[in-house]
Amino acid sequence: MNLVQDDVILLAGITGRIGAAPLTTLVAEGARVVVLSRDRKRAEAAIAAALEPNLRNRALALAADLYDPASAAAAVAECVKTFGRLDALVNLAGSGWRRKTVTDSGLGDLRETLAEVIDTAYNLAQAALRTMLAQPYREGARSRGRIVTVTATTAKAPNPGMSAFATAKAGVNALMLSIAREHKADGIVANALLVGGIAFPGADHFRSETARATAVSVQELTNTLTFLASDRSSGINGALLDLTARLTDR
Predict the structure, then answer these.
(1) How does pLDDT run across 190-231, given as a tens digit for each residue?
(2) Domain boundaries, the chain
(3) Angle at 28 between CA 26 and CA 34, to 5 degrees
(4) CATH annotation of 8-243
(5) Residues of 64-89 as b/e, b for ≥16 C-beta within 10 angstroms?
(6) Which of 50, 81, 86, 121 is deepest in the core (most CB within 10 A)?
(7) Measured in whole angstroms, how far is the alpha carbon of residue 146 from the centre of its chain?
(8) Who's near 65: CB < 8 A, 6+ residues apart?
């Protein structure tokens, strides 16, 4: 379908548990992709594992410390220097995964989780947004920049022991809504994708094959992100979109 033909997409957070499926699909759909990681060698390894040699020139590995606004901005600048623009940011980074009840946790636990989830999302989205606002529309496009950040359904219905994580993800949801509303007349599209359980390789939180079968597959996540990164999704803006696959009772 070539959903993102010749679009430049900054992709963060695929060198962890989710794996390189988003990279493979985005390139197959025509994109040029910057793979962002804390470790450039891990990004390079992801590109080498995911793409055939003849396609690797469509991907660039970059390292950035997303806790540092200057580092995030430098990565976005390098993306533009290499490929000429930035059409979409797809952000899966920022886990913040730790299980403690409110009474068992302290302010330090909350602050650590907020930094892992909100600070990193804010720094990267802000750098991408500033670049998108400074560039022209591509010919025929309805938007000049799309931002999609993966959060979690637990932001709306927190699981026990996940108060800090749920609070942080809810903050990122609000960030995406703020960007969408502040720049709805500027050609910017921003959405949050709230994902339920993902059956990534090695996932140990599914207690049965039936539970795994009902969860979101990595490819389902990838397909949704690809659409939201494309100009075909320009009519979806400021949305909190649930991706729960077969978990219809959530």
Answers:
(1) 999 999 877 666 555 555 566 656 678 888 999 999 999 999
(2) 8-243
(3) 40
(4) 3.40.50.720
(5) bebeeeebbbbbbebbbeebebbbbb
(6) 121
(7) 11
(8) 38, 71, 72
Is the CB of residue 152 less than 8 Å from the CB of residue 169? yes
What pLDDT sits at residue 35?
98
Rounded CA-CA distance 248/163 in Å is 23
Mean pLDDT, the chain, whole residue set: 91
What count of Cα atoms within 13 Å lies in the side-chain half-sphere of residue 50? 27
3-state SS string for 104-118: CCCHHHHHHHHHHHH
Q: Which parts of the chain are beta strand (E)?
A: 8-12, 32-37, 59-63, 88-91, 145-152, 188-195, 240-243
C-beta separation of 140 from 233 below 8 A: no
End-to-end CA distance of the chain: 31
For 85-143, what is each residue's pLDDT tens digit? 999 999 999 776 677 888 888 999 999 999 999 999 999 999 999 999 999 999 999 99
Mapped onto helix, strand or coil, the DSSP state of residue 50 is helix
Looking at residue 167, its pLDDT comes to 94
Cα–Cα distance for residue pair 161/97, rounded to 1 Å: 11
Distance CA 236, CA 49 (A): 33
Quick one: pLDDT band at residue 1, thresholds 50, 70, 90? Answer: low
0.85 surpassed by pTM: yes
Residue type at 39? D
Angle between helices 120-133 and 69-83 (to 10 degrees): 40
With a CB cutoff of 8 Å and minimum separation 6, the contacts of 45 are: 15
